[in-house]
Here is the input.
Amino acid sequence: MIAIDWGTSSFRAYRLSEQGGVLEKREATLGILAVSDGNFAAALESQVGDWLDDGDAPVLMSGMIGSRQGWKEAPYAACPAGEPEIAAGMVDVNWGEGRRAWIVPGLSCRDESGIPDVLRGEETQLLGVLSDLPRNSAWVCLPGTHSKWARLEDHRIVEFSTHMTGEVFAIMRQHSILGRMMREAQVDEEAFADGVVRARDAGGLLHHLFGVRSAGLFGQLADESSASYLSGLLIGHELAAIPRLSETVYVLASEQLAARYVQALSTCGISALVLDSDGVVKGLFRLSASLPKD
Amino acid sequence: MIAIDWGTSSFRAYRLSEQGGVLEKREATLGILAVSDGNFAAALESQVGDWLDDGDAPVLMSGMIGSRQGWKEAPYAACPAGEPEIAAGMVDVNWGEGRRAWIVPGLSCRDESGIPDVLRGEETQLLGVLSDLPRNSAWVCLPGTHSKWARLEDHRIVEFSTHMTGEVFAIMRQHSILGRMMREAQVDEEAFADGVVRARDAGGLLHHLFGVRSAGLFGQLADESSASYLSGLLIGHELAAIPRLSETVYVLASEQLAARYVQALSTCGISALVLDSDGVVKGLFRLSASLPKD
Here is the structure.
């Protein structure tokens, strides 16, 4: 089968063996925003057409390709949702002679106030790591521009929440008065931990943010350490917002980002386990077993 | 006397009568960042030199002119501080023959974790409205790019905190994914109130921010209303961070901004009184009585 992770800014394709092993991988800066005229069929053909010429390997895709801005909208499946609900929500696209592909739906949920939340792509990553999680219940953290926290019970995603941690960090650094004092430097783990601890104080995030500046003014925070402090502060606020956080958290991220979350969780007295970040491939392979056999 | 409100981006000068009435007002886009070569003496002379030619009216200045980037640093007076401490912290500058001016110091305080906070300019506004406040205790809110909340007891500023509400609103609107959906429109008071109420939910600001997008995706928030909702959300989080907020809050702001804070406070069941925003002039006049008589 062919597994495709097609996001806003990147395209990754994997040719898998019948056992799910990766035989070949291709990457391109061909995110959905970069596909000219919305001609996704031509884009896909250009990337993996040759993989399909000698057989009818199924093609499964996940990520923003299934959004309103993508190829074809795959409506969100509502939580609680497990593999059956996600598989049932896949939509197919036909793209020329004998070419067919399936798009995995994202997930939605609503909190007690009725405010919706959404994810797209992470549902596939979560399916890919199911076998690494305790069956009864687990918190999985997928940090990033928009961090996702998913609560799994009995291998179903019962609830999740999105936190704009990565994006707020980036724009505060680039566009706010705080960024003016920040100098590029290695991660300062001590300053990072100080930020995490600060997040537990009263005062609120909007006040704590100004503290980055005032601590700098008073020489309590070096310009070289203030980005690390800000990062710890924001991640600390993210952690503080997760309810009933006591057992081990499973972190699904690249090595560098995972290290930050493991440190932040540890600072809060919570243990963490980092999972392989190739969940998408495993998840798409898992879903391929649910495809109609026609 | 001459009262001068000299900030980062603006310059305002007032010629006052002996009773403190405003005889004449001048405004210029001559903030401290716009003064070439740091020649503040020449800048001041160009603006108010003619007011000084036939007498020796004292000149008092407050705002960022007293910061490290200004004319001469007037070190922060530490809270608790009242009029005597602020007056004692004024520093003078001599600027040519017979020309002398005084710069009012800002204030600093530290919270229980030892993180400092600072303000500069607002101390003068606060002195200017003292007579409008109950003597025993009062919360004064000075909203803006960096909102300040000051707690006064016995006409002294005992503590204060800064919240980056206005700046975070502006950069989220201009630079984040949320801004893409926002259309210019009138203030939508209902959406604003929804944002204020949302801030009281669990989940944290970083999560609530993403809700602006997901509520939009689900048609629960119109593009024309999302800026109002975001504004309410941020102001709501600011209010939630103020401890022991029960009695009447005194709001010191321009009419439009004050209206937003009065609505937000009212939504939270707290009454508010808007004070005249010409506190700086009154505060500088009040401080002029403390100048040495030499």
Summary: Chain B touches chain A through 46 residues (CB under 8 Å). Chain B has a mean pLDDT of 95. The first strand of chain B starts at residue 2 and ends at 6.
